[in-house]
Amino acid sequence: xxxxxxxxxxxxxxxxxxxxxxxxxxxxxxxxxxxxxxxxxxxxxxxxxxxxxxxxxxxxxxxxxxxxxxxxxxxxxxxxxxxxxxxxxxxxxxxxxxxxxxxxxxxxxxxxxxxxxxxxxxxxxxxxxxxxxxxxxxxxxxxxxxxxxxxxxxxxxxxxxxxxxxxxxxxxxxxxxxxxxxxxxxxxxxxxxxxxxxxxxxxxxxxxxxxxxxxxxxxxxxxxxxxxxxxxxxxxxxxxxxxxxxxxxxxxxxxxxxxxxxxxxxxxxxxxxxxxxxxxxxxxxxxxxxxxxxxxxxxxxxxxxxxxxxxxxxxxxxxxxxxxxxxxxxxxxxxxxxxxxxxxxxxxxxxx
Length: 352
Known about the structure:
5-stranded antiparallel beta sheet; 17% strand; globular
């Protein structure tokens, strides 16, 4: 009987804690490097450019936490509670993410990183961060509210998503990844169904950068073990260096799950999910999952294969995948994702 090699990467170390007071100024402003955050909002000391005016009244409006009223808690993000709130005067709904800052140093660094990424990443397919605040030991992110929830909410109701709609989802997520990977030099590192949000207009947007890593340059790589292991690329689990291609593996896993109605490493609905160690061993040692050729088009099977390659050098980039035949196949078909999500129950009733 063949003995499986232990996964050395599972030797996790506990980081030392850093008092939050060491990051507070005398005025109660949270400061970390060039980032300053208080009740008035966020500012980067290195950012001398004034923000351009937009035609969006929400983006241009100046408001405080006191202008927001809580509707209800709608979930938990990376490191904090997320509430549905409404602006008292504009009537605009937002998702308010609250993060306690009496935490370990590595988690604090991730949160500061998230603030900087949100500050810079204004993209059609990335959830907008309208403002952020620091008050009484808590950082608040005022985020765009996506009223149809996540892909996890969608597949929970309809079980599987047909290829034409999946092509629309893929195209939008790929555009978001092109922006993050190639323009902002960011690896998201936690692409999963619950981090791909949908609204009633059929827009799909990437959210939650709590475990993202901004690279110093386009050739940079990372070797840290964070994110949701179910969708984690083999090179990350095995402890190798990784780059933007790790997000592509995760996207392929998500889209395959949406297509077949179950997590790809589960062979049938009757089979239980493998244990933590069994799953990690399967991802590293076994052949990658694939789309059944008797159930899906050749274009879809090819797209999944282009994403889920064990060797990241064999994986396509987000830019390459935007030109893939599966994406092109439905571009002139006028597929409206809003029709699909419009038939679903919203994950949160906006009433009180």
